[in-house]
Protein backbone atom coordinates (compact mmCIF):
# COMPACT_ATOMS: atom_id res chain seq x y z
CA UNK A 1 0.00 0.00 0.00
CA UNK A 2 1.40 3.42 -0.84
CA UNK A 3 2.32 5.86 1.90
CA UNK A 4 1.00 9.40 1.96
CA UNK A 5 2.96 10.54 4.98
CA UNK A 6 6.02 9.14 6.69
CA UNK A 7 7.93 10.45 9.70
CA UNK A 8 11.33 8.93 10.39
CA UNK A 9 12.94 9.50 13.79
CA UNK A 10 11.57 12.99 14.26
CA UNK A 11 13.00 14.82 17.28
CA UNK A 12 12.06 18.30 18.37
CA UNK A 13 13.53 20.58 21.00
CA UNK A 14 12.24 23.83 22.41
CA UNK A 15 15.23 25.88 23.47
CA UNK A 16 13.47 28.55 25.53
CA UNK A 17 12.98 29.17 28.36
CA UNK A 18 15.04 26.02 28.98
CA UNK A 19 16.10 23.20 26.67
CA UNK A 20 13.15 20.82 26.39
CA UNK A 21 13.11 17.61 24.32
CA UNK A 22 9.46 17.71 23.32
CA UNK A 23 9.37 14.94 20.67
CA UNK A 24 11.56 11.82 20.82
CA UNK A 25 12.17 9.50 17.87
CA UNK A 26 8.73 9.78 16.32
CA UNK A 27 8.43 7.25 13.48
CA UNK A 28 5.15 6.28 11.86
CA UNK A 29 3.30 6.52 8.57
CA UNK A 30 -0.14 7.10 7.15
CA UNK A 31 -1.18 4.95 4.20
CA UNK A 32 -3.29 6.07 1.29
CA UNK A 33 -6.94 5.91 2.31
CA UNK A 34 -6.14 5.44 5.99
CA UNK A 35 -8.01 7.34 8.71
CA UNK A 36 -5.72 7.62 11.74
CA UNK A 37 -6.16 9.50 14.99
CA UNK A 38 -3.60 10.77 17.50
CA UNK A 39 -4.49 10.72 21.17
CA UNK A 40 -2.57 11.54 24.32
CA UNK A 41 -2.59 13.58 27.49
CA UNK A 42 -2.44 17.34 27.39
CA UNK A 43 1.16 18.38 26.83
CA UNK A 44 2.21 15.04 25.29
CA UNK A 45 3.28 16.80 22.08
CA UNK A 46 0.37 16.15 19.70
CA UNK A 47 0.02 19.70 18.37
CA UNK A 48 3.78 20.11 18.13
CA UNK A 49 3.93 16.94 16.03
CA UNK A 50 1.05 17.99 13.79
CA UNK A 51 2.73 21.34 13.21
CA UNK A 52 5.84 19.53 11.95
CA UNK A 53 3.88 17.02 9.87
CA UNK A 54 1.96 19.83 8.23
CA UNK A 55 5.32 21.35 7.14
CA UNK A 56 4.68 24.57 9.06
CA UNK A 57 7.46 23.97 11.57
CA UNK A 58 10.80 23.15 9.96
CA UNK A 59 12.92 23.26 13.11
CA UNK A 60 13.19 19.52 13.85
CA UNK A 61 15.58 16.60 13.40
CA UNK A 62 14.71 13.50 11.38
CA UNK A 63 12.97 13.11 8.04
CA UNK A 64 9.53 13.72 6.72
CA UNK A 65 8.15 12.31 3.45
CA UNK A 66 4.97 13.37 1.70
CA UNK A 67 3.81 11.08 -1.12
CA UNK A 68 7.23 9.40 -0.93
CA UNK A 69 9.05 12.68 -1.54
CA UNK A 70 11.54 13.86 1.07
CA UNK A 71 10.35 17.29 2.14
CA UNK A 72 12.78 17.88 4.99
CA UNK A 73 15.25 20.57 4.03
CA UNK A 74 13.11 22.21 1.36
CA UNK A 75 12.83 26.01 1.26
CA UNK A 76 9.88 27.82 2.83
CA UNK A 77 8.65 28.77 -0.62
CA UNK A 78 8.70 25.16 -1.84
CA UNK A 79 7.04 23.99 1.37
CA UNK A 80 4.31 26.55 1.07
CA UNK A 81 3.45 25.26 -2.39
CA UNK A 82 3.66 21.59 -1.36
CA UNK A 83 1.43 22.33 1.63
CA UNK A 84 -1.20 24.23 -0.37
CA UNK A 85 -1.44 21.45 -2.89
CA UNK A 86 -1.21 18.35 -0.73
CA UNK A 87 -2.42 19.06 2.77
CA UNK A 88 -5.83 20.19 3.95
CA UNK A 89 -6.25 21.46 7.51
CA UNK A 90 -9.17 21.61 9.85
CA UNK A 91 -8.66 23.24 13.23
CA UNK A 92 -10.76 23.44 16.37
CA UNK A 93 -11.68 26.98 15.40
CA UNK A 94 -12.95 27.39 11.84
CA UNK A 95 -10.97 30.57 10.90
CA UNK A 96 -13.52 31.52 8.23
CA UNK A 97 -13.56 35.10 6.98
CA UNK A 98 -16.85 36.24 8.47
CA UNK A 99 -17.63 38.97 5.92
CA UNK A 100 -17.10 36.65 2.95
CA UNK A 101 -19.69 34.22 1.64
CA UNK A 102 -19.40 30.50 2.26
CA UNK A 103 -18.53 29.99 -1.41
CA UNK A 104 -15.77 32.63 -1.35
CA UNK A 105 -14.27 31.13 1.80
CA UNK A 106 -14.09 27.72 0.13
CA UNK A 107 -12.62 29.17 -3.10
CA UNK A 108 -9.85 31.11 -1.35
CA UNK A 109 -7.07 28.45 -1.14
CA UNK A 110 -7.55 27.57 -4.82
CA UNK A 111 -7.25 31.22 -5.82
CA UNK A 112 -4.06 31.36 -3.82
CA UNK A 113 -2.70 28.30 -5.64
CA UNK A 114 -3.54 29.95 -8.95
CA UNK A 115 -3.80 26.86 -11.14
CA UNK A 116 -7.43 27.09 -12.23
CA UNK A 117 -9.77 29.72 -13.63
CA UNK A 118 -12.36 31.40 -11.41
CA UNK A 119 -15.08 29.38 -13.16
CA UNK A 120 -13.32 26.08 -12.53
CA UNK A 121 -12.67 26.96 -8.90
CA UNK A 122 -16.31 27.92 -8.37
CA UNK A 123 -17.47 24.70 -9.99
CA UNK A 124 -15.17 22.61 -7.77
CA UNK A 125 -16.22 24.54 -4.66
CA UNK A 126 -19.92 23.96 -5.42
CA UNK A 127 -19.27 20.24 -5.98
CA UNK A 128 -17.58 19.97 -2.57
CA UNK A 129 -20.36 21.93 -0.87
CA UNK A 130 -22.84 19.49 -2.44
CA UNK A 131 -20.85 16.48 -1.20
CA UNK A 132 -20.94 17.92 2.32
CA UNK A 133 -24.65 18.74 2.03
CA UNK A 134 -24.21 22.50 2.47
CA UNK A 135 -24.52 23.83 -1.09
CA UNK A 136 -27.64 25.76 -0.07
CA UNK A 137 -25.41 27.91 2.17
CA UNK A 138 -23.09 28.97 -0.68
CA UNK A 139 -24.24 32.58 -0.92
CA UNK A 140 -24.65 33.15 2.82
CA UNK A 141 -22.15 35.20 4.77
CA UNK A 142 -19.96 32.99 6.96
CA UNK A 143 -21.00 35.03 10.00
CA UNK A 144 -24.64 34.00 9.43
CA UNK A 145 -24.36 30.23 9.74
CA UNK A 146 -24.29 27.91 12.76
CA UNK A 147 -21.16 26.52 14.46
CA UNK A 148 -21.65 23.04 12.99
CA UNK A 149 -22.16 24.53 9.52
CA UNK A 150 -19.02 26.67 9.90
CA UNK A 151 -16.96 23.58 10.63
CA UNK A 152 -18.37 21.86 7.55
CA UNK A 153 -17.43 24.92 5.48
CA UNK A 154 -13.92 24.75 6.98
CA UNK A 155 -13.73 21.12 5.84
CA UNK A 156 -14.91 22.11 2.35
CA UNK A 157 -12.20 24.80 2.24
CA UNK A 158 -9.60 22.23 3.29
CA UNK A 159 -10.65 20.03 0.36
CA UNK A 160 -10.70 22.60 -2.44
CA UNK A 161 -7.15 21.88 -3.68
CA UNK A 162 -7.81 18.13 -3.64
CA UNK A 163 -5.20 17.32 -0.98
CA UNK A 164 -3.78 13.84 -0.53
CA UNK A 165 -4.13 14.12 3.25
CA UNK A 166 -6.49 15.98 5.54
CA UNK A 167 -5.08 16.88 8.96
CA UNK A 168 -7.18 17.96 11.89
CA UNK A 169 -6.23 19.45 15.25
CA UNK A 170 -9.23 18.87 17.51
CA UNK A 171 -11.67 19.44 14.62
CA UNK A 172 -14.64 18.51 16.81
CA UNK A 173 -13.36 20.24 19.95
CA UNK A 174 -15.90 23.06 19.74
CA UNK A 175 -18.85 20.98 18.59
CA UNK A 176 -21.70 19.24 20.39
CA UNK A 177 -22.08 15.48 20.00
CA UNK A 178 -24.50 15.76 17.06
CA UNK A 179 -22.13 17.96 15.04
CA UNK A 180 -19.07 15.93 16.09
CA UNK A 181 -20.67 12.81 14.72
CA UNK A 182 -21.55 14.70 11.57
CA UNK A 183 -17.89 15.71 11.08
CA UNK A 184 -16.78 12.12 11.70
CA UNK A 185 -19.26 10.86 9.10
CA UNK A 186 -17.99 13.39 6.56
CA UNK A 187 -14.39 12.28 7.15
CA UNK A 188 -15.40 8.62 6.84
CA UNK A 189 -17.28 9.35 3.62
CA UNK A 190 -14.23 11.13 2.16
CA UNK A 191 -12.07 8.14 3.03
CA UNK A 192 -14.51 5.54 1.68
CA UNK A 193 -15.59 7.35 -1.48
CA UNK A 194 -12.47 9.29 -2.44
CA UNK A 195 -9.66 7.33 -0.79
CA UNK A 196 -8.61 10.40 1.18
CA UNK A 197 -6.08 9.90 3.99
CA UNK A 198 -6.83 11.54 7.32
CA UNK A 199 -4.80 12.25 10.43
CA UNK A 200 -6.71 13.78 13.30
CA UNK A 201 -5.56 14.85 16.77
CA UNK A 202 -8.45 14.39 19.16
CA UNK A 203 -9.34 14.12 22.83
CA UNK A 204 -12.65 12.52 21.87
CA UNK A 205 -12.42 8.78 22.58
CA UNK A 206 -15.71 8.03 20.79
CA UNK A 207 -14.34 9.71 17.68
CA UNK A 208 -10.91 8.03 17.87
CA UNK A 209 -12.33 4.56 18.41
CA UNK A 210 -14.16 4.75 15.10
CA UNK A 211 -10.96 5.55 13.13
CA UNK A 212 -8.78 2.86 11.54
CA UNK A 213 -5.92 3.33 13.98
CA UNK A 214 -5.19 5.22 17.18
CA UNK A 215 -1.64 6.51 17.58
CA UNK A 216 -1.13 7.09 21.29
CA UNK A 217 1.39 9.61 22.55
CA UNK A 218 2.84 10.18 25.98
CA UNK A 219 5.64 12.49 26.99
CA UNK A 220 6.71 13.19 23.39
CA UNK A 221 6.83 9.55 22.33
CA UNK A 222 4.53 7.21 20.49
CA UNK A 223 3.63 4.52 23.00
CA UNK A 224 1.21 2.43 20.89
N1 LIG B 1 6.82 27.34 21.87
C1 LIG B 1 7.04 26.54 22.91
N2 LIG B 1 8.12 26.72 23.70
C2 LIG B 1 8.35 25.90 24.76
N3 LIG B 1 7.57 24.84 25.10
C3 LIG B 1 6.47 24.61 24.35
C4 LIG B 1 6.14 25.44 23.22
N4 LIG B 1 5.00 24.97 22.68
C5 LIG B 1 4.64 23.90 23.41
N5 LIG B 1 5.51 23.68 24.42
C6 LIG B 1 5.46 22.57 25.40
O1 LIG B 1 5.61 21.37 24.67
C7 LIG B 1 4.79 20.33 25.23
C8 LIG B 1 3.90 19.76 24.15
O2 LIG B 1 2.92 20.73 23.78
P1 LIG B 1 1.76 20.40 22.73
O3 LIG B 1 0.96 21.64 22.57
O4 LIG B 1 2.36 19.79 21.53
O5 LIG B 1 0.93 19.29 23.52
P2 LIG B 1 -0.49 18.67 23.16
O6 LIG B 1 -0.34 17.21 23.37
O7 LIG B 1 -0.94 19.12 21.84
O8 LIG B 1 -1.37 19.29 24.31
P3 LIG B 1 -2.96 19.65 24.30
O9 LIG B 1 -3.66 18.34 24.25
O10 LIG B 1 -3.15 20.33 25.62
O11 LIG B 1 -3.22 20.53 23.13
C9 LIG B 1 4.05 20.98 26.40
O12 LIG B 1 4.76 20.65 27.58
C10 LIG B 1 4.13 22.46 26.12
O13 LIG B 1 4.12 23.19 27.30
UniProtKB/TrEMBL annotation:
Record has Nucleotide-binding as a keyword: yes
Pfam families attached to this UniProt entry: ABC_tran
Key words, A-Z: ATP-binding, Nucleotide-binding, Translocase, Transport
Lineage of source species: Bacteria, Pseudomonadati, Bacteroidota, Flavobacteriia, Flavobacteriales
Record-given protein name: ABC transporter ATP-binding protein
InterPro entries xrefs: AAA+_ATPase, ABC_transporter-like_ATP-bd, ABC_transporter-like_CS, MacB-like_ATP-bd, P-loop_NTPase
Keyword Nucleotidyltransferase part of the UniProt annotation: no
Annotated ranges, domain ABC transporter: 5-223
UniProt xrefs under PROSITE patterns: ABC_TRANSPORTER_1, ABC_TRANSPORTER_2
Annotated GO CC locations: membrane protein complex
GO MF annotations, alphabetized: ATP binding; ATP hydrolysis activity; transmembrane transporter activity
